[in-house]
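FIELD: query
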Amino acid sequence: MQALDELNKKLTKLIKRHSTLEAENKRLRETVARQQSTEADLKQRIASLEQGMVSVNLDKTIGSAEERDNMRRQLDVLISEIDGILNTLND
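FIELD: result
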């Protein structure tokens, strides 16, 4: 009978330990999920900031409004030429 009581105590202790470990496992999974979400948000923010840096660097490279207008005109001419070539190829 004493062996059964000891076995029952050990079993009760194991069940409590199992419950504790399950609760800790759940908490850790939630923590990991939050961290993954935060990581995804930070990666998206980094990508956005990098894109902004490219724009800022481009503005610094181009310089004045007159230079930007000249570049825009040159790009318009190039795009028109490309459109003409594509139209010729499609005919």
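FIELD: remark
The helical segments are 2-62, 65-90.
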